[in-house]
Amino acid sequence: MRNLFITLLLVVATTAVAQEKKIGVYGVGFYNLENLFDTCHDEGKNDYEYLANGTNKWNAMKYESKLANMSRVLAEMGTDLLKNIGCAIIGVSEVENARALSDLVAQPALAARNFKFCHVEGPDKRGVDCGLLYNPRFFEPKDVKLYPYVQKLEKDSGFVTRGFLTVKGSLAGDDIAVIVCHLPSRAATSFYRELGAEQVRHLKDSLIAAEPNLKVIVMGDMNDDPMDPSMAKSLRARKKIADVKSGDMFNPWWKTLSDGNGTIKYDGGYNLFDQIILSPQLLTPEGKKDFSTLKYVKHQIFSREYMLQQEGKFKGYPKRTFSGGVWLNGFSDHLPSIVYLAKEL
Fold first, then answer.
1. For residue range 218-271, what is the model confidence (pLDDT) as tens digits?
2. Burial of 200 (C-beta count, 10 Å sphere; 0-12/13-18/19+)
3. Could you tell me if 307 and 2 are in contact, meaning their C-beta atoms sit under 8 angstroms apart?
4. Long-range contacts of 107-112 (CB under 8 A, 24+ apart)
5. pLDDT value, residue 292
6. Tens digit of each residue's pLDDT (9 = 90 or more) over 40-93
């Protein structure tokens, strides 16, 4: 277990001597897997482009290569700080079903760490769901639910989309809840993402009202940037820890985007749709250090050269599975995001 721990120097304010304390550090990540479909048709789902006779000519060879590529990234996430250990928890989106997740965690890179998953089949017409991967060495799930996205306008009453996968459990002895989201795409107007974020905020508030010490993490492909209304207003995800009041959350990704970094690239510029957002119970006031319970310490966009296009018009963009109908044997059009949490041993 000792490889799990990173020693941090904490300055004791009441003395002139630096006191060394051991701190356990845990990676919590999110990754949009960009259409991880198996090769079989799911009844009632529009998954035909990912069948052998579909537009993508999807077959066992392509599927197995996709699994290997995804597992490589997932296994390496968090290893910049936690070598040979990686993330304790990783939320994922755009996965077709439990079969695909089962095949994913069976890949050698993830099976070596005994990764498991949580999943609830959702109503999305294409069949894409969210899931939560976890290393049982560090995280113990206790309750798994899918809360539906509820339409507000009568004209949308027959349209169903991805809900909010909510997993309550224990990380480092602390009770946490992880809400994994994939908000409506930008083919829809901002209203629909604002509506989804508002529902997530109410869900978060209800969880904390029932358990005031519960630490809540909201993560996902938000299809919006941190400063967009869905995040800044509907979810009340603030830019600075000092601005986080009761009912708010902290979104560390504002500065990352303003510094010119993001998780997807479009028309030469970055967006940062893949966010991990934290409730106040995971924060310490700026300038103070309190790791008696899990606290946020750092965040990161995870990237490797092999995940990026190395030449051509889209050099530097995330390397996709398909582009222009051509199979690239790539990874995803998104880069993963990670936050690191720490707790005194």
1. 999 999 999 999 999 999 999 999 999 999 999 999 999 999 999 999 998 999
2. buried
3. no
4. 107/67, 107/68, 107/70, 107/71, 108/71, 109/71, 109/72, 109/74, 109/75, 110/71, 110/74, 110/75, 112/75
5. 94
6. 999 999 999 999 999 999 999 999 999 999 999 999 999 999 999 999 999 999
pLDDT of residue 83: 94
Report the distance separating Cα 48 and Cα 51, nearest Å: 5
DSSP for 91-125?
A: EEEEE--HHHHHHHHTSHHHHTTT-EEEE-----T
3-state secondary structure of 256: helix
Q: Determine the Cα–Cα distance for residues 343 and 5; give it in Å rounded to an integer.
A: 10
Q: pLDDT confidence of 345, banded at 50, 70, 90?
A: confident
Q: What is the pLDDT of residue 3?
A: 39
**Pick the residue with more confidence: 212 or 289?**
212
Of 128, 193, 139, 195, the residue nearest 165 (C-alpha): 128
Sort 292 into a burial class: Cβ within 10 Å, 0-12 / 13-18 / 19+.
exposed
> Would you tell me the crossing angle of helices 98-105 and 60-76 to the nearest 10 degrees?
60
Check residue 78 and give left, alpha or beta (phi > 0: left; psi -120 to 50: alpha). Answer: left
Q: Tokens for 68, please give them.
A: 């290997």
Residues 6+ apart with CB under 8 A from 90: 28, 29, 30, 31, 74, 77, 132, 133, 134, 336
Residues 113 and 89 sit within 8 Å (Cβ to Cβ): no
Contacts of 89 (CB under 8 A, 6+ apart): 26, 27, 28, 29, 132, 133, 134, 135, 138, 139, 171, 178
pLDDT at 19: 54
Q: How far apart are the first and last CA of the chain?
A: 12
d(CA 93, CA 101): 11
Structure-block tokens of residue 119: 């999943």
Residues 6+ apart with CB under 8 A from 184: 161, 192, 193, 196, 223
